[in-house]
Design brief:
CATH superfamily: P-loop containing nucleotide triphosphate hydrolases
Shape: globular
Number of domains: 1
CATH architecture: 3-Layer(aba) Sandwich
Distance between the termini: 39 Å
CATH class: Alpha Beta
Order of helices and strands: EHEHHEHHEHEH
Oligomer: single chain
Radius of gyration: 17 Å
Bound molecules: thymidine-5'-diphosphate
Low-confidence stretches: none
Number of helices: 7
């Protein structure tokens, strides 16, 4: 199924508060101004099942089993791939994802300590082999602690997640682009536009000055 795609899948990864949502908004607006059809989705979410699982995973009682946590994220992903991503990509749209399979490797693998190979195999099945064309790893300041079930894990957890991201990004430099994001929003947006522009072969015109 993955091979039928004509669209482009772009994912954004990184720990909390590095500016993913802001940059996704900027990139989507820039591409729409160039008349591309753009769809923005977040994980977990984007489908009825995905939004329900999001609320269970993030806001209901703590999940004790990291394996259960992984499989719930994976279930949300499977539904998103089947219901939204495959149809969108086969229509030739650009899909921008706020997190995708790599989040499970970084958070449940490096963060929670689940076997990374097993996670990659689960990901391969639930995505039906679909992998992003480009992934932006936004790197900002460390994150300590927040309110939802994942954010409660604390500083050491997020340091492991950060290390995990660096490791998986280094394994596939043609897909991953590391973007330091503790800079003015416009500067970061422009760097991302340049990379997308060259991937889409748009030339340098119209990149925000
Ligand atoms: P969200 O509020 O979207 O956080 P952020 O704005 O930082 O992306 O919540 C998603 C949370 O779920 C985030 O803490 C990362 C975590 N997560 C995983 O642990 N595994 C996964 O596979 C995915 C998709 C997300």
């Amino acid at each position: 199924m993955g091979r039928e795609r004509q669209g482009v899948l772009i994912s954004f990864e990184g720990i909390e508060k590095v500016g993913k949502t802001t940059q996704i908004g900027r990139l989507a607006a820039w591409l729409r101004a160039k008349k591309f059809t753009v769809r923005v989705m977040r994980e977990p979410g984007g489908t009825m099942l995905g939004e329900s699982l999001r609320s269970i995973l993030l806001h209901q009682g703590e999940i004790k089993s990291p394996q259960a946590e992984l499989l719930l994220f994976a279930a949300a992903r499977a539904e998103l791939v089947r219901e939204v991503l495959m149809p969108s990509l086969s229509r030739g749209e650009i899909v921008i994802l706020d997190r995708f399979s790599d989040s499970s490797v970084a958070y449940q693998g490096f963060g929670r300590g689940i076997d990374v190979k097993w996670i990659q195999s689960v990901n391969l099945h639930v995505t039906e082999g679909l992998s992003p064309n480009m992934t932006f790893l936004l790197q900002g300041p460390s994150f300590d602690q927040g309110d939802d079930n994942i954010e409660k894990a604390g500083r050491e957890f997020f340091d492991r997640v950060k290390t995990g991201y660096n490791k998986i990004a280094a394994e596939d430099p043609s897909r991953w682009h590391i973007i330091p994001s503790a800079r003015p929003i416009d500067e970061v947006a422009k760097d991302i536009q340049k990379l997308v522009s060259s991937y889409l072969m748009l030339g340098q015109d119209g990149i925000e000055g």
